[in-house]
Design brief:
Oligomer: single chain
CATH class of the largest domain: Alpha Beta
Number of strands: 19
Length: 418
């Protein structure tokens, strides 16, 4: 059972002021979760979370997380600009990009960001783009093959295919990159890797940590460089379905600590800082897409048409992803009606739910689509001339703030040349 963080009474008051559809975020939940993460890794003095800006590139959210000690994981020129405008600069920024342009390298260098190189060829590209190679730099590792995590105590298995991913360097390439960068004047090195997405297992991060910790010792011994940090990246997931288990971030932190003390500490590397780049885990459960039922249709199935569409939340259309739906005010009503909940795009995959058992939906009912705080509004687009929705922040005192207005037709036409 998933319970919205906003009540029907609250939504009735909010929608009287802000028309649907809109995304709304829970400040209290975001802050509490950031503090849980920090506490889980407090044993590592250099720990820092670099929030994945791509997940929710909204200034109010980035500033809120910055207040909780989080930096920004940026992957483009405009994300770097956004971080700077939010007051995040220097080593509070991790710049992890691929197919990186010279302009992106130059701005990252200007801001003092930690640059994470995705490919061996980018060593020379960076050297050609900036006046001076930074003394602290990171390289992204791709071990290839298939990453499999054995059956866990939660009953879930994790498997992904790094060998098919476009990111990162091979084992030989990262050693070569370290050697070449050291010759160029780099003094501090970091290692980064991402092996699996949205894992629901407390074992994923410790398993990844062991891979990277062993690699760090090997590269230190092989190249002689100083490895000062290891970035575990993202991949810690959230339960989109009510029956799925939640990750226990305290247990995850303890598992990583055990790997650290087993591998790094005996190797004389007990001062290595750990970084994370979590987006989904940090924000997804603390965002809802609020939409209103506006049409119903009966042909071969029962359809409920809402005023949101895939342009407001792409994940169900793009991945077939499940997002739980609550009919506001009918939380305790029996789920005895089967519906497809659909938007109005000229695409048959514009469906938030297929054959979903829900309470009887009446026109005007407000639907809460759960877990949209990450990769929700940020993946919006303008197909069919749809306009991107507003974003609201529910503050801890119960007040609501507009943090991004809805687009207007003037916005849509602003970039056109007639």
């Amino acid at each position: 059972m998933k319970t919205p963080f906003v009540t029907k009474a609250q939504l009735d008051a909010i929608t009287a002021r802000y028309p649907t559809p809109f995304h709304i975020y829970d400040e209290a939940g975001i802050r509490e979760n950031a503090r849980r993460l920090k506490a889980a890794f407090a044993w590592n003095p250099g720990f820092r979370e670099y929030f994945a800006v791509k997940a929710t590139p909204t200034p109010a959210i980035l500033k809120l997380l910055h207040e909780e000690g989080c930096g920004c994981d940026c992957s483009s020129l405009t994300e770097l600009m956004l971080a700077r405008r939010c007051g995040v600069t220097g080593e509070e920024i991790m710049f992890s990009s691929n197919n990186t342009s010279d302009d992106e390298f130059r701005l990252a260098r200007e801001l003092g960001a930690i640059i994470n190189l995705d490919d061996l060829t980018l060593v020379d590209a960076l050297a050609g783009a900036v006046d001076h190679i930074p003394e602290k730099i990171c390289c992204r590792f791709n071990p290839g093959g298939v990453f499999t995590l054995a059956q866990t105590r939660e009953g879930f298995q994790v498997m992904d295919n790094p060998g098919d991913a476009k990111y990162g360097m091979t084992r030989a390439q990262i050693a070569q990159a370290f050697t070449r960068l050291a010759a160029m004047g780099v003094r501090e090195f970091g290692i980064h890797a991402f092996l699996a997405s949205n894992t629901l297992s407390n074992e994923y991060y410790p398993a990844l940590a062991r891979i990277l910790f062993r690699l760090a010792v090997e590269l230190r011994d092989e190249t002689g460089v100083q490895i000062s940090f290891i970035n575990l990246s993202g991949g810690v997931g959230v339960p989109y379905r009510p029956e799925q288990p939640e990750n226990n971030i305290a247990a995850i932190g303890q598992g990583v600590r055990e790997a650290y003390e087993e591998i790094l500490t005996p190797a004389g590397m007990g001062d290595v800082a750990l970084y994370t780049e979590l987006g989904r885990f940090m924000l997804a459960p603390y965002g809802h897409l609020i939409t209103r039922a506006v049409r119903k249709k009966h042909i071969y199935k029962e359809y409920i048409g809402v005023d949101a569409c895939a342009c407001d939340l792409m994940r169900p259309a793009m991945y077939g992803a499940y997002h739980h739906i609550t009919v506001s005010g009918k939380e305790d009503a029996p789920c005895d009606h089967k519906y497809d909940v659909v938007g109005s795009l000229c695409e048959n995959n514009d469906k938030f739910a297929v054959d979903r058992m829900l309470p009887k939906i009446d026109m005007g009912d407000l639907l809460v689509i759960h877990d949209t705080g990450a990769h929700g509004h940020s993946m919006g687009y303008n197909y069919n001339g749809k306009l991107r929705s507003a974003e609201l922040l529910l503050h801890q005192d119960g007040s609501v703030e507009l943090i991004r207005r809805a687009e207007t037709p003037d916005d849509y036409f602003a970039t056109l040349v007639w």
